[in-house]
Q: What sequence folds into this?
C-alpha cells in the first residue's frame, strides 16, 4: 500500500479533527490519529452500536481484507458515533481523515442528488423489491454519483421500511399526525413529507432523539424497526405504525484519496470485498429485524397497520415535484419497473 494521500499536516484533516475534539470526542480522535499513522490500518465509522448489521458488515470487510492480505490490510471500526455525526464523518472521508463512512442516504440528498431516487416516498413496495433495484443498474448509477465529491460509493445497505413511532397515539391515516412534532433527518424530502402528512417536522441528529422524546421536545420520529429497538426509543415511544413510507438505504463510502493510494490489486480486493459484504449485511439484517419485532412485541409496544393508500395520496405532491428532474424520473421508472 502506498501513501494514503492525506498527510498528518493536511489542513482539511486538521480542521476536522479539531472540530471533533471540540465536540467532546477527543479520546476517539486521539486513537484515530494513531491509527492513521499505523501502516495498513483502514479506519471506518458508524453511528450505530457495535452489534448493528452495518457495523458487523464492515467488520467482516476488515476480517476478509486481513485474511486475504496476510494481515497487511485491516480495518479499525469506530462505532456508536465515536467520531461524531454522519455529516461530520462524511466530510472526514472526503478529506481523507478516515477511510470508510457508513451514511444514511436521507442525509445525502442535497450533496448527492441521485440518492433522492432511493429516498422518494413509496418508491418501493417491499424489501425484496428494493434489493432487486440495488443489485441492478439503478444501484450502480447512484453509487457512481458519489464520485463527484471526493468519495466512492462501495455498497448500498438496505435497512427495511421506515415507519412512524410516537408517544401519543396510533397513526392510522395522515390526519392522525396533526399537531405531532416528528423528528426527521436533515433531508428536504423528509421535512416536506412530514408537512404534507400533517405533522410538524423537527430535524434532529439521531443521537438526540431519545432525550427529545423523554422531554417532549418531540412527540415521535420515523425509522426502521431495527433502529427503533437498538436505540431503545421504544422505552419512550410506545406506538409503532407500519407506514413503510420510505425504504431509504445506507451507503458505504470510501475516501477517494484512500482508494487512489492503494495498489491496483489491493484496490480491486477492497471493492470486491465491499460488494460481497452486502449479502452478509442482508443476512444479519433479516435476522435482527425479526428479533427486534419479537422483542418489541414482548415489550408491549402497540403496533398497527395503516391506510396505506391515504398516505400515498398525501405524499403525491412531493413525488410529482421530485419527478420534474429527468434524472430522477428515469431512475424512478426503472425502480417501478422492477416491482414484482
A:
Amino acid at each position: 500500500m502506498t501513501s494514503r494521500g492525506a498527510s498528518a499536516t493536511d489542513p482539511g484533516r486538521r480542521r476536522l479533527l479539531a472540530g471533533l475534539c471540540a465536540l467532546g470526542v477527543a479520546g476517539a480522535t486521539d486513537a484515530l490519529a494513531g491509527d492513521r499513522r499505523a501502516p495498513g490500518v483502514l479506519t471506518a465509522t458508524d453511528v450505530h452500536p457495535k452489534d448493528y448489521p452495518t457495523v458487523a458488515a464492515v467488520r467482516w470487510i476488515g476480517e476478509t481484507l486481513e485474511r486475504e492480505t496476510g494481515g497487511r490490510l485491516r480495518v479499525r471500526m469506530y462505532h456508536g458515533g465515536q467520531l461524531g455525526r454522519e455529516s461530520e464523518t462524511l466530510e472526514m472521508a472526503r478529506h481523507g481523515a478516515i477511510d470508510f463512512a457508513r451514511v444514511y442516504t436521507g442525509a445525502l440528498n442535497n450533496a448527492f442528488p441521485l440518492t433522492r431516487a432511493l429516498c422518494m416516498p413509496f418508491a418501493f413496495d417491499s424489501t425484496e423489491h428494493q434489493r432487486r433495484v440495488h443489485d441492478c443498474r439503478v444501484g450502480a448509477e447512484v453509487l457512481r454519483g458519489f464520485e463527484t465529491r471526493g468519495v466512492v460509493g462501495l455498497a448500498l445497505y438496505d435497512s427495511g421500511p421506515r415507519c412512524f413511532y410516537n408517544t401519543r397515539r396510533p397513526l392510522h391515516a395522515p390526519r392522525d399526525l396533526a399537531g405531532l412534532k416528528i423528528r426527521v433527518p436533515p433531508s428536504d424530502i423528509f421535512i416536506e413529507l412530514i408537512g404534507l402528512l400533517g405533522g410538524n417536522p423537527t430535524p434532529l441528529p439521531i443521537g438526540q432523539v431519545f432525550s427529545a422524546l423523554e422531554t417532549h421536545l418531540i412527540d415521535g420520529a420515523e425509522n426502521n424497526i431495527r433502529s427503533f429497538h437498538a436505540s431503545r426509543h421504544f422505552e419512550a415511544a410506545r406506538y409503532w405504525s407500519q407506514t413503510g413510507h420510505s425504504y431509504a438505504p445506507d451507503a458505504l463510502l470510501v475516501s477517494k484519496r484512500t482508494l487512489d493510494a492503494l495498489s491496483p490489486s489491493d484496490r480491486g480486493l477492497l471493492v470486491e470485498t465491499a460488494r460481497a459484504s452486502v449479502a452478509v449485511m442482508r443476512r444479519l439484517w433479516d435476522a435482527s429485524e425479526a428479533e427486534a419485532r419479537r422483542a418489541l412485541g414482548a415489550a408491549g409496544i402497540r403496533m398497527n397497520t395503516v391506510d396505506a393508500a391515504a398516505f400515498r395520496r398525501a405524499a403525491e405532491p412531493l413525488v410529482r415535484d421530485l419527478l420534474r428532474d429527468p434524472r430522477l424520473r428515469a431512475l424512478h421508472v426503472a425502480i417501478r419497473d422492477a416491482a414484482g
User: Anything to note?
Assistant: DSSP finds 14 helices and eleven strands in the chain.
